[in-house]
Design goal:
homodimer; about 425 residues; alpha+beta; Molybdenum Cofactor Biosythetic Enzyme, Chain A; Molybdopterin biosynthesis moea protein, domain 2; Molybdopterin biosynthesis moeA protein, domain 3; 4 domains; six-stranded mixed beta sheet
Chain lengths: ~425, ~425
Amino acid sequence: MLSIDEAQRLVLCHAQALEATQVPLAESLGMVLAEDVFSDLDSPPFDKALMDGYALRRADLPGGHGELDIWPETILAGQPPGSTECPIPAETAARIMTGAPMPAGTDAVVMRERTSEIQSETAVVGRVLVNDPHLKAGQNIMPRGTEMTRGQQVLKSGTPIGPAAAGVLSAVGRVAVSVFPRPRVAIISTGNEIVEANENPGPGQIRNSNGPMLTALVARAGGSPRYLGIARDSNDELGLLASKGLQSDVLLLSGGVSAGDLDLVPGVLREVGVREVFHKVNLKPGKPVWFGVADRQRSQNSDLKSQISQPTLVFGLPGNPVSVMVCFELFVRPAIRRLMGFADAGPKTVWATLDEERSSKSDRPTYWPAWLEPNDNGLCVRLVAWKGSPDLRATTEANAFAIFPPGDHQYRPGDRVQVLCTEY
Amino acid sequence: MLSIDEAQRLVLCHAQALEATQVPLAESLGMVLAEDVFSDLDSPPFDKALMDGYALRRADLPGGHGELDIWPETILAGQPPGSTECPIPAETAARIMTGAPMPAGTDAVVMRERTSEIQSETAVVGRVLVNDPHLKAGQNIMPRGTEMTRGQQVLKSGTPIGPAAAGVLSAVGRVAVSVFPRPRVAIISTGNEIVEANENPGPGQIRNSNGPMLTALVARAGGSPRYLGIARDSNDELGLLASKGLQSDVLLLSGGVSAGDLDLVPGVLREVGVREVFHKVNLKPGKPVWFGVADRQRSQNSDLKSQISQPTLVFGLPGNPVSVMVCFELFVRPAIRRLMGFADAGPKTVWATLDEERSSKSDRPTYWPAWLEPNDNGLCVRLVAWKGSPDLRATTEANAFAIFPPGDHQYRPGDRVQVLCTEY
């Protein structure tokens, strides 16, 4: 049986970043930049005062101590540089505000707290006493172009757009940016026994938890979910819904992939043109997971280009919700991230300290719902009480999965285990 | 000067969860549940087979080995329990599929791989040979109500709604849930020198990075951002925009809170009825941060009730973008999370291993942009090259802030430092 690593490699070798598209800056948060971005200006655009105080010449004050005339005009932020009668003469200090351009001739700012104005009833020009023993040329000044210079590359293609990048894009005049779009991810629940949340399950029926859960998983991963409904265990109904799903970038089905008599999904997917890449991975829970690719179905809205460029990635996920969740994190989320242009497709794993005694015995790598949190020594993981892959309720108390390798293992408190993160 | 902890306490004692509201399940992702949720059913609704194989009586097979008649009907998932001619007689095994209800009389499932059908041309009834030496009563069965029982509390008020909770809510029939709403957060940039991203800055002007950055920070924190534009440094213009902002749950202004001649924000906010709670926190960068509260302004859309129940929280943030970011993470984000009903308001800090030599000297706790990532030993932090609070570009390479306590410190590679997380 395929290992998790091999299966992940097979998924990712069919997943390339979608064709880039231009979006308004405000919509780009969480997406990945698809262009290198260059600055069209120097920032700051002038030598800039970083403190409220006095702009002066270092050379006028040996030892940082002495008296200077006060320039009649205060230099404010937002004032054009050079708008004063420059340069400021020697032995003179100009009051200056944070963010204001340094007047020509000055080379240091002394903060207001290290100065005192000299009261005089007779003097025509005000005088200031400066006392800053560590006074250095350049102090409290950010030279022009320190943050970025005109023509400099400020963001690389492949950078995820977070708040800081949004601020920089705006600073260099970008109101729209080229990004890799959010993949459209179609979701189908399968099974005769499944009814929707607004229905009362009859005998032997259960409500659909995989549909809403997958919708949320896709949204959290950055994709754009489209829930298509429940397909009964019939070739026709399943084939019809699956064909509709093949218009999306990714199609997810839950249920119907085991070896049971009603596990129709692999057969139906083949019939609608999906080529199987793998079926079954050495993993617990989630072993029956199925993956294939299909040529994009023509949808009424799509243009010819996008149909040719990328196949639809099709995941037949197991029916039990915790198996769905594990397979999603291990295989689907990396695919979505790769389509979105993330260099780091994941999944994201960390090492953490187990806080309890535990024995684990399985022929397969086992994922156990767990709570991961930082403590003073790093990361700590606590297993939740869990009854197996149909037990989704227990998993609401988890934010990660502890990974136990195959074999017979005895863990003690303080032992380190690998953990699959789900919240990122 | 106020410490960061004291300032955070003052912010949080003015921030309570907003009045709960009902939203469709699909919109609740990332919000916090405002009601206890109980199950209206047993799950599974019957004793459920966890494997494809044969349902049988443990007592019929001493040693787990022997031959049984095959029941003529296969039990499928989605089939009502008790729909077979129950109970299955002794010395008989029924073919059963994963997820199907156990037929009455049986108490174990043997997986298909441990059975073989006996070929016979003469027999009327099929026979199966079972060989499962570890056969135990109850094996491969999930008893009715294992995941949850009717009437059981399955989710507590205060639980953040993630994918697993969405699945459970759907399973218990909830198509809408009561949650604490996303706070409306108004954003104003201030300063004569600021122009919008679509403009070409004249001499001495810079483009607005704080507006788009705060919009993104608010969205990432879970709030609903409303950008109101740039206010010039005039009491009238600032007062008008600020009054508009007071219709929201939170009002953020950037710039104009230092001691400079044009730092009008604290005065104008007092004029429009905001009561100052604090001004200045012992922190670098971000010292001039201002916080106050105001009675809610009447907006055309709001009802009387919400105006009475909660004041508007008003943050006067510094003008330099990295100061804005640090103050947002330390004070604004916890407020937003508390309004959203998160028990854990944050901020989120972890301890990590510094990977370089570093000296830090400051009279204030200092936040330095840094890259936090897991390694095999826990968490590791790398400082980015950063030129100070106006240098937002450098911060695009960071996902956290390393925290250096006040004083004169010399760090070596491997030393542990506290880190403020920004991506959660």
